Amino acid sequence: MRSKLSIAATAGAAALLLTTTAPSSAASPGPAQNLGDPDYGVCRGLDPRCYHDWGNFDPAKGYKLLVYSRTAGPRHAHLGTPLAPGLNPPLNDNNVAVKAVIRLGQENGFAVDYTEDVTQLSSAGRLLPYNAVMFLSTTRDTLDDAAQTALRQYVRAGGGFVGVHNAFGTEYNWPWYEGLLGNANFYDHSANQPGTVVTVNHRDASTQGLPRTWTFSDEWYNLVPAPTRVRVLAEVDESTLARGVRGNLGHPGHGEHHPVSWCQYYDGGKAWLTTLGHDVKAWTDEPMDGDQYFIQHLLGGVKSVLGMAPFCR
Q: In this protein, which residues make up the domain named ThuA-like (predicted)?
């Protein structure tokens, strides 16, 4: 029997941009989280001219993803036990999210390295062999000064970034990183509960073939600030959350438009972002409503950032 990961794989003017308003497809932050729309001093948004196509990533050399899952605070269960130093250390049975991404790469033609060792991100030269870097439920101050500089240089060289789940609970006090997330940051979350995801864009590689609505369980993230100048790909319908959307720090939710996935060009690079992925079952073959759509969605986003599919359409 094929795994759900396999099934998902087969399912189907730059300066001006800094002063334009958000497109109609962007999220519309409510009054509780509208903190303005800073430009972070970089070209960002939906204009491909914000991308630096410097020829640093040759498709003839194949496609390669680096997964970074270091935690300097709370650690999600889907990450399992902390990994040993170095690149590609031995994995335990409970490192299910990293294993799932490795398997997606094996089944879809891209190589995957993984690490929780910040020294592996210590220079842009270490990162440039990768078409994209994924922050997978990293937490708090997971980068030192050298790694912060390297990530910024890498993105400016046309590198790709994939932020998954608690990547939004990372590097809170670094404005450039907040911009990389789409002018968004984790504030709090609702109870872990089922809800209805609404696919609001079907043109993107990460949403093609997804149903218009699908049930999924997560701890639905409330964001301050909420994303602007991005292409929102999926939202959660707050009215379907039986236990409500109010977080433990009092956030009332986002109302009619509560984004859970989006994409953008940023400071020369590409970024695909999702707050989804909390439940361990989302990363394994254990049955869970909508898990195949989550994996399909993630795979499409990864492929688009790697350059294997059109980006942010």
A: 95-302
